[in-house]
Amino acid sequence: MISLERLCRKNIWDLAPYSSARNEYAGREARVFLDANENPYNQPFNRYPDPLQLELKAALSKVKGVPAENIFLGNGSDEAIDLPYRCFCNPGKDNVVAIEPTYGMYKVCADINDIEYRPVLLDEQYQFTADRLLAATDTHTKLIWLCTPNNPTGNCLKREEVVKVIEQFEGLVIVDEAYSDFSSQPTFRAELSKYPNLIVLNTMSKAWGCAAIRLGMAFASTEIIGLFNKVKYPYNVNLLTQQQALEALKDPFEVDNWVKVLLQERTRMIDAFEILPICEKVYPTDANFFLAKMTDAPAIYNYLVDKGIIVRNRHRVQLCQNCLRITIGTKTENSELIAALRQF
Ligand SMILES: *Cc1c(COP(=O)(O)O)cnc(C)c1O
Asked: In the prediction, which pLDDT does 18 show?
């Protein structure tokens, strides 16, 4: 790996971060807070939240098996997707490489930050090779985006190829594991100490059932986490989110239970789709959704919308012609979708 200092934008490496009132006394006992121009009334909402979310990170550290100092928390994964661009990519000069098709936010953030985005098409099985991805890089490539299980395809990427990219690429490799709770594959979080150029993303939005609170996380070396913390808004995760996430983390068994039910329902839905005359193929999935190739995806999509049922039409995405992406819902919701499709 190239040194982090050389990978980093110079203005970010040299940045003196904002120092909040609460940063400056840290470590000592305090009772009277007259430092941050807060209103003393209306507790607990009157006080600024912990900018580094230390209590929440301690709880997450136990669940995720990653030391707290290797965790960054953001306003959804969206923030953790944007920060690598802001920290490492010089606008109008650097570029990033990603598999295609994949999650749309990697490209949106590249466009916002004026960074060239280089998509490398997957094969017909929605797999990639490290060699083809690495061939798309040059000396200005700072990041490679991988997503496993991938969205919208649902499948896990071949592990040997992911490892090869991490081992051979000189810049940073970001592995988005938003759906890893639904997969039996081992998580790349466990590989962090081996690879200083690896960033793994997780979210509370999927298996944890907390999309509304906006909490995403990045796991990486303390040096990378330090850069993210320097660049993020000082109070990027609000108090209500921190409290609600702590509440959710008290009961990880509930999540296990949801995942179990959703995986059973996924099997039932795939079986039902496979015998629908309007379904040509269901692709293998390791996530809480699946991609199905239909006879006429746009027509079926519109028919379902008229019935008040919304799925994701991926017809216009490369390699996904006539595909619908179906999220696994409750048993009732799933049955309603199947019943409607039988009537098409
Ligand atoms: C849904 C999803 C996320 C989650 O984004 P949040 O901002 O945390 O809600 C991240 N990555 C992928 C690939 C997703 O599909």
From this structure: 86
